[in-house]
Design a protein that fits this description.
This protein is α/β, with parallel strands linked by helices and about 200 residues long. Helices cover about 35% and strands about 15% of the residues. It has eight helices and nine strands. The protein has helices at about 15-30, 80-85, 90-100, 110-115, 130-135, 165-175, 180-190, 200; strands at about 5-10, 35-40, 50, 55, 60, 70-75, 105-110, 150-155, 155-160. The strands form two sheets. Strands 5-2-1-6-7-9-8 form a seven-stranded mixed beta sheet, sandwiched between helices. Strands 3-4 form a two-stranded antiparallel ribbon. Helix 1 links the parallel strand 1 (about 5-10) and strand 2 (about 35-40). It starts with a strand and ends with a helix. It comes from Microlunatus kandeliicorticis. InterPro entries: Class_I_gatase-like (IPR029062), DJ-1/PfpI (IPR002818), INH-QAR (IPR052158).
Length: about 200
Amino acid sequence: MLSMKAILAVYDTLADWEVGYLSVELRTGRFTGTPVEVVTVAEHPGPVTTMGGLTVTPTLTLERLDAGPDDLLVLAGAGFWDRDPAAGTVWTALAADFLAAGRPVAAICGATAGLARAGLLDERDHTSAAREYLAATGYRGTDRYRDERAVVDGDLVTAGPQSPAHFAAVTLGRLGLMNADRRRAYLGVFVDGDARHYAGLTA
């Protein structure tokens, strides 16, 4: 197992399907050959309930997080990103710290809106649920928006809620765990439903 950890932020109404593909591939290494420890981190101790009704007990609280130099931060959507944006500032501050230190950050759905409000998308290529969705935040990075399923720009990966498999594939590519051929096979299986790609995924 790599020394790198995947720090998965967990909070009530976490959009669990958005990070399901990524967390499974990181933890098991079933298609990369390299398992990665997945650590769930919450702002407060005690279990959280995901949008799908699953109960998640975090590994540790945010105040006890000691991130390593190569650790990945994963931020998923949740109701508060749009309903109460101020509630996400603790996570966008952490994302800012990660990016400033050259650590990768992967954000999907509402978390991209949080990053937009924090100014973290102003000078980076990115995507989200829709161009209009991010524009409503009033951020200044609209010219860097890309109409793609998932986008990587340096240490930042972004995607919309309709693209969890793309989010996983692009993030694994950014981490050096999955090459381009393997990513195409992965999307062929999990997006296109074409079993002919499975051999390329397991080769």
